[in-house]
Structures are given as structure tokens and as C-alpha cells.
Amino acid sequence: MNQPLGRPGTADVPFSDADFQALAELAHREFGLSLAQSKKPLVYSRLSRRLKARNIASFPAYLKLLNEANETDERLELISALTTNVTSFFRENHHFEMLRADCLPAAIERARGGKRLRIWSAGCSSGQEPYCIAMTLLDMMPEARRHNVKILATDIDPQIVAKAKAGRYPAEEASSIPDRFRQKWVKLSVEDNARIVISEELKGLVTFAELNLIAEWPFRGPFDAIFCRNVAIYFDQATQQRLWHRFADMLAPGGLLFIGHSERVTGPAMQMLSGVGITSYQKIAPHRAAHMQ
């Protein structure tokens, strides 16, 4: 018999293997999440809060709710509960160094000549990543906003996207921002000096939007660089490989893909991408890709 999972001595809601499997199937179908059986205690712990918030007495009742057409918001609460938004300014800084050295010089030259420059932060979490991209870009191209230069930042969680747009963070997070960047584009909040605020100049380069990466994408690219770090860890291998291939299609020739420290590109995308550094890949020029096949 399946025993309830929870704190001893509390009136825990039963959570059967069948309940877990149904939730796992929904999470995979809707969001591409891969939930191993070993995640059952974690899923129980996090979703028990949602049952309480919605005043629901059982997991089967919660599953019924999730499958109702008008419960889009609750399905997004589900994805928020099952994933972790952990990030920081200039996390895995080698990616920003490679962006600066190997991508932006040529991309900026093209943009100054009238071409477009596009960078995508896919799975932007609370916004630190796209703002770091913006700092790096503006440091090299102060006049960027006068050209066709944009950073797209997307995440599936509307609450986290709203936080990213606001650009307000605990003051201690500023310690990982280089001094010259911090002095130029980060200020202490007037209302609360325990928080920092991202400048409007940086915000003006970034467009935030909600996006489910396994659904259709309402844009075509191409992008000069794509950051998708520590997102694919939630997907099974087949979903990961489809995502890598779609990213490769979206990159301009020579464009860079940056992924998380525990992630690796595999599958058909490797016919279009070449490893060029630590969890960094470059789109192979079409003639080179044809030669490699």
C-alpha cells in the first residue's frame, strides 16, 4: 500500500504512485518536464502547498482541476512549484567573456552597418542573465539603442517574468557585478536601500515575454547568440534533443549557444553545432555542415 508522504504527526493528504504518475504525465505533456519516481517526495512537498492554497482535499481533485480548460494559471503555478529559479549576476562568467570576445565584435560591426543584432535569453528566470548580456553589450556599444539591437528574454513563469521586468534585487546580489558596471547601471532603491534597481538604459535593450519552450515560438530569428542555461536539465533526452535542434535552427551562422554547466548538446543538432568552449557551441556555416555529413 502507498503511504502518505509528509511530516509525521500531521494530517497529510494521501499521494499514491498513480497520483504521482498522472502529475508527471501532465507535466511532461504540457511543459516537457521529466519527473523521475525519486522526485515523488519533492513533488508532494511542493504541491501540498497548492492544494492548501486552492482549498483542495485530494490529489485526484487537484489533477481534475489542472485539466480544466480555464485553469491555465494553476498549470503555471504547477510549473513554478516544480522548478527552481536559482540564478545570479554573471553566473558562469566564462560565457559572458566568450560573448564579448567571439560574438559581439562582428555582430556590433554589422549592427553599426545597418544590420540587426539579436540575443535570446531562453529561460531568463528573474532577469539577471539578460541584464548581464545588456551590460556586456552596452559596454562595447554604448549607442546600441540607436541601432537595431535587441535582447529577448523569455520564461514560462509569469510571476518570474514580472519580477525580471521590475529589475529590483536584494542589494547583496550586486557584489557579483563588476564595479564599473555596477557604478554605471545599478542604483540603490530610493524607497528601500536594501534593494538595487537596474537602470532604464539596460531595461530599454531587453524585451521580456512569457514562453513555453516546448510549444510554438512566435518568432523566426536568427539570433547571434542564445543563452539557455540550466533549463534542459528538467527535460528528458528526447525533449532536450528537439530543443537543441530548434535552437540550432534559430542561430545565425557562427552564432553561439550557451547551456548550463551540467548540460550537453547531443543528437541531430550536432550536425549544425560545434563545441567551442565550456558548455558553449557555435553554429557551423552551411558549407562546413554539408562537408561534415
Structural commentary:
The chain contains eleven helices and ten strands. It is an alpha/beta fold. The protein has two domains: 17-82, Orthogonal Bundle (Chemotaxis Receptor Methyltransferase Cher, domain 1), CATH 1.10.155.10; 93-292, 3-Layer(aba) Sandwich (Rossmann fold). The strands form two sheets. A seven-stranded mixed beta sheet has the order 6-2-1-7-8-10-9. The protein has a three-stranded antiparallel beta sheet with strand order 3-5-4. A hairpin with a 2-residue loop joins strand 9 and strand 10. Helix 2 (40-53) packs antiparallel against helix 4 (72-82) and helix 5 packs across helix 6. The chain starts with 16 loop residues before the first helix and ends with a helix. Residues 1-10 and 289-293 have low confidence and may be disordered.
